[in-house]
Amino acid sequence: MKRVYINSVASISAQKTYDNSEFLNEIVDYEDNVIGAVNPSYKEFIPPAAARRMAKGIKMGVVTSKIAISEAGIETVDAIISGTGMGCLRDSEKFLSALIDNDEQYLTPTSFIQSTHNTVGGQIALELQCKGYNFTYVHSSNSFESALLDAKLQLENQEANNILVGGVDENADHTIAVHRVVDHIKSEKVTLAGLLNSNTKGAVFGEGANFFVVSNEKHEEAYAELVGIKLYNTLQKEHVAEEVKTFLEENGLSATDIDAVVLGNNGDVGFDGYYEVLAENMFKETPQMYYKHLSGEFNTASSFGFWLASKILKTQSIPQVVKLNDVEVSSLKTVLLYNQYRGENHSFTLLKQC
Which one of 128, 193, 272, 287 has the minimum C-beta count within 10 Å? Predict the structure, then answer.
C-alpha cells in the first residue's frame, strides 16, 4: 500500500493561525468561556458580495481550503472530505427561528439551503470546480478523524492521489445557551493560561476550520507522514493505556519510540483524567503538549491538534505555550495524538517526520 503524506496545512482558529509563515508567534489571550475565531481578510479569498451571503463556517472552510490547495502547489484535488459536528449551525438556528416567528409561512430558503452539514464541502467543490468524491462525516467529536481515515484508505489503495480533508465548526448563540445549561461550558470565565487549573466542570467553547492536502505522493515541503488512525466510540479510562500500547504495536512501535504526545485536555475536571492516565505513567518522560486552551473546545477541535502536530514535525520546534511538561528531546520524529470528548469518541492518530 502507498504511504500517506500531509503536503499542506491551513488553519483558522481563535489564534492568528491563518498565516502559515508563522507558528504561534503571537498568542491571542482571553478571559472568557466562549471564544470566537480570529478572522483573516476574507475579501482576499472570496468576493465580498459572495462572502456576505456565506455563514462563518462556510467562509472559514473555503478560505482554509484555498490556503491548503495553494501551499500544496496544485490546482484541484481528486476528492474533498470534510468533518463537522454541527455543520452550519448559525443558519440552522436562523431558519428555525424564522419558522417559529413567521408561523411557518413566507420563509426564504437561503438559510435552509446553507444549514446542512455538507454545505461547506459543497461550497469548496464549487470554488475549486471539483467534481470528484465529496463526502461529509458527522460523527460528533470523531468527525475529523472519520474524514481523515476515509482519505487515508483511499490514498493507500491508490483510489486518489490528492485529497483535501478537514474539519470545521462554528459557534451559534442558542446552541451555546443550551450547552451552558447542561454544564458543558464553564460557568466562570477563565484565562488561556489558567484553563487546566480551573478545577471545574465544562470547557471553554470555540470554533474554527483546519484543512489539509493529503497525498500518496510526497511533496518537497511535506509536513509529515500519516501513519495510523484508530477510533473508539467508548473506552474505559482504565483501558486507555492498554489500547494505546496495542495501537503502537500495530504500527511497529512502542511507547519509547514516541517523541511527543499531543493531548486534548480542555480543563473539564470530570474528563481530563483520561489524559492523565497517559501523562502520569506511559508518557511521563515524553514531551507532552495540549492545544484546546488556544482553540477552544468544539467537535472538530482535534483538527487543530492535527495542525499543531504537523507544524511541530516540520519546524522541529515546540512553542512554549503548548507545553504540558519540560521534557526535552534532541529531535522530533514520531508524534502521537489522543483526543476524547466527555469520555466518548476516543481517537489515536500517529504522525511521523518525513
Answer: 193
- For the cut 80, the answer to whether the pLDDT of residue 233 exceeds it is yes
- The answer to pTM > 0.70 is yes
Q: In the CATH scheme, what is the code of domain 4-215?
A: 3.40.47.10
Q: What is the pLDDT of residues 196-230, one digit of tens each?
A: 999 999 999 999 999 999 999 999 999 999 999 99
> What tens digit of pLDDT does each residue of 110-127 get?
777 777 899 999 999 999
Residues of each domain in the chain carrying CATH 3.40.47.10 = 4-215, 227-352
- 14, 35 contact by CB (below 8 A): yes
pLDDT per residue over 284-331, tens digit each? Answer: 999 999 999 999 999 999 999 999 999 999 999 999 999 999 999 999
Fold held by 227-352: Peroxisomal Thiolase; Chain A, domain 1 (3.40.47)
Distance between terminal CA atoms of the chain? 17
Task: State how far the Cα of 310 lies from the Cα of 6, in Å rounded to an integer.
Answer: 8
- Between the alpha carbon of residue 28 and those of residues 17, 295, 306, the distances in Å are 10, 10, 20
| Number of Cβ within a 10 Å radius of residue 173 | 12
